[in-house]
């Protein structure tokens, strides 16, 4: 190996270490956040079918709203990373304060949308008791949206300063708090009222306020934030600054909503094929979602690392960081895809003892193995692009891939409508929808990789000029 190749490999390894140092605490935090939803469903399931159904319905609406807010507030990561990379630390406190105003504005809209979304339940032919509990769940849990939006502003601030461990500890603390308060309110332990599904909503709403308070306290007490401390004085909204960040964040929010709503739509569309198909689909999707947390965490770290490099004016290093991150995500996807393809029976058996569900799950998990490669590629490439403070092209690519390709193709293959001359003779049910998702995600991955290459080359050309 030549000395130049050795030096380049040394640089790549150093960047891999730097990305992983940022990514692993984010990964633990993301798993803790997912764990809150799992705990809500698992603990409510022991109360009764009505409460479980109410939580499932309410949580689906809450999750779609939540990920949209996460996407909008993710623009804060890129803005602060560029400021820090450019050595403009004096501007960071101002950016954080304006991000808090953006969080408040986003939370108001999200709360209104969340509460209005309960009107959809009127058209789902639900049992009256289930509908009443689901509506109450949504109304109560909406009080957690304002602190969550503010928390995501501080989340982006901390991550962009390369401080991701606080996010991990706070998320783990939130998970523990959520489970304990669920135990008190869902079951009515220690003298508290037995609230069932509504107890989950109260627990999650309180948890959002706790996590915000913990984040504020951590920033106030840690010396790591001293040079950019944002809580020194009151600052009125700067609408030019807020609108600039919103223009960057709104496409990310739409992208996240498009992806989550696509998967939610598939879950509704396969419901007509019976309990076995629905159960197998949910198991395969749940396992794929857990594994997806790794490339997603690498993607969040990529926004910071790419943003810092570009803020320093180093477009060449920005491209290197971007491709190292994509390579890490794809390498993990190869490992996870191999594990899923080799051990689908063990994975299915860990979720259910029903033989029919196991067989269907094994079949879908083989498609999930393919799913890993395209999903890891698209999330890492789109995150790297956001590090360039470019968000609209990924939005259009995701909308076209999910709602222009994946869902229509899934409907054709899964439902086999008779009015289409090129539909298959028999519906492929959940398999058809998963094939559609694999193809849609693959198209997204290819287009995003192409756009990342084009964008990074353009930045290098501008930098050289």
TrEMBL record:
<keyword id="KW-1003">Cell membrane</keyword>
<feature type="transmembrane region" description="Helical">
    <location>
        <begin position="396"/>
        <end position="420"/>
    </location>
</feature>
<protein>
    <recommendedName>
        <fullName>Multidrug-efflux transporter</fullName>
    </recommendedName>
</protein>
<feature type="transmembrane region" description="Helical">
    <location>
        <begin position="101"/>
        <end position="121"/>
    </location>
</feature>
<feature type="transmembrane region" description="Helical">
    <location>
        <begin position="432"/>
        <end position="452"/>
    </location>
</feature>
<dbReference type="GO" id="GO:0015297">
    <property type="term" value="F:antiporter activity"/>
</dbReference>
<keyword id="KW-0050">Antiport</keyword>
<dbReference type="Pfam" id="PF01554">
    <property type="entry name" value="MatE"/>
</dbReference>
<feature type="transmembrane region" description="Helical">
    <location>
        <begin position="196"/>
        <end position="220"/>
    </location>
</feature>
<keyword id="KW-0813">Transport</keyword>
<keyword id="KW-0406">Ion transport</keyword>
<keyword id="KW-0812">Transmembrane</keyword>
<dbReference type="GO" id="GO:0042910">
    <property type="term" value="F:xenobiotic transmembrane transporter activity"/>
</dbReference>
<dbReference type="GO" id="GO:0005886">
    <property type="term" value="C:plasma membrane"/>
</dbReference>
<dbReference type="InterPro" id="IPR048279">
    <property type="entry name" value="MdtK-like"/>
</dbReference>
<dbReference type="InterPro" id="IPR002528">
    <property type="entry name" value="MATE_fam"/>
</dbReference>
<dbReference type="GO" id="GO:0006811">
    <property type="term" value="P:monoatomic ion transport"/>
</dbReference>
<dbReference type="InterPro" id="IPR050222">
    <property type="entry name" value="MATE_MdtK"/>
</dbReference>
<feature type="transmembrane region" description="Helical">
    <location>
        <begin position="250"/>
        <end position="271"/>
    </location>
</feature>
<feature type="transmembrane region" description="Helical">
    <location>
        <begin position="167"/>
        <end position="190"/>
    </location>
</feature>
<feature type="transmembrane region" description="Helical">
    <location>
        <begin position="59"/>
        <end position="80"/>
    </location>
</feature>
<keyword id="KW-1133">Transmembrane helix</keyword>
<feature type="transmembrane region" description="Helical">
    <location>
        <begin position="320"/>
        <end position="343"/>
    </location>
</feature>
<keyword id="KW-0472">Membrane</keyword>
<feature type="transmembrane region" description="Helical">
    <location>
        <begin position="283"/>
        <end position="308"/>
    </location>
</feature>
């Amino acid at each position: 190996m030549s000395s130049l190749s050795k030096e380049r490999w040394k640089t790549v390894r150093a960047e891999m270490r730097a990305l992983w140092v940022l990514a692993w605490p984010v990964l633990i935090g993301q798993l803790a956040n997912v764990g809150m939803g799992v705990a809500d469903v698992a603990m409510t399931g022991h109360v009764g079918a009505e409460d479980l159904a109410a939580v499932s319905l309410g949580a689906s609406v809450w999750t779609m709203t939540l990920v949209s807010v996460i996407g909008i507030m993710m623009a804060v990561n890129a803005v602060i990373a560029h400021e820090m990379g450019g050595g403009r630390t004096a501007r960071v406190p101002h950016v954080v304060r304006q991000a808090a105003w953006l969080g408040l504005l986003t939370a108001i809209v999200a709360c209104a949308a969340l509460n209005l979304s309960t009107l959809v339940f009127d058209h789902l032919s639900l049992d009256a008791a289930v509908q009443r509990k689901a509506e109450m769940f949504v109304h109560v849990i909406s009080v957690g949206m304002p602190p969550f939006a503010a928390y995501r502003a501080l989340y982006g601030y901390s991550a962009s300063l390369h401080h991701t461990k606080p996010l991990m500890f706070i998320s783990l603390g939130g998970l523990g708090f959520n489970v304990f308060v669920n135990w008190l309110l869902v079951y009515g332990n220690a003298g508290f009222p037995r609230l069932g599904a509504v107890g989950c909503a109260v627990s999650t709403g309180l948890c959002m306020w706790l996590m915000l308070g913990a984040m504020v306290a951590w920033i106030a007490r840690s010396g790591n934030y001293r040079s950019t401390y944002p809580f020194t004085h009151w600052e009125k909204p700067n609408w030019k600054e807020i609108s600039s960040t919103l223009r960057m964040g709104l496409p990310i929010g739409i992208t996240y909503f498009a992806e989550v709503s696509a998967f939610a739509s598939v879950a509704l569309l396969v419901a007509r094929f019976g309990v076995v198909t629905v159960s197998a689909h949910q198991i395969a999707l749940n396992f794929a979602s857990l594994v997806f947390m790794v490339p997603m965490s690498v993607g969040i770290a990529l926004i910071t690392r790419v943003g810092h490099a570009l803020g320093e004016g180093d477009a060449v290093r920005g491209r290197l960081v971007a491709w190292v991150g994509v390579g890490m995500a794809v390498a993990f996807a190869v490992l996870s895809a191999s594990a899923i393809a080799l051990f689908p029976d063990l994975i299915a058996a860990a979720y259910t003892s029903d033989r029919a569900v196991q067989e269907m799950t094994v079949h879908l998990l083989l498609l999930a193995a393919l799913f890993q490669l395209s999903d890891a590629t698209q999330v890492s490439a789109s995150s790297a692009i956001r590090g360039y403070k470019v968000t609209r092209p990924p939005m259009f690519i995701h909308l076209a891939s999910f709602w222009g390709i994946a869902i229509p193709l899934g409907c054709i293959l899964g439902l086999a409508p008779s009015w289409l001359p090129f539909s298959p003779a028999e519906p492929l049910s959940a398999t058809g929808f998963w094939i559609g998702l694999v193809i849609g995600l693959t198209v997204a991955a290819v287009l995003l990789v192409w756009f990342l290459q084009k964008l990074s080359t353009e930045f290098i050309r501008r930098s050289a000029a």
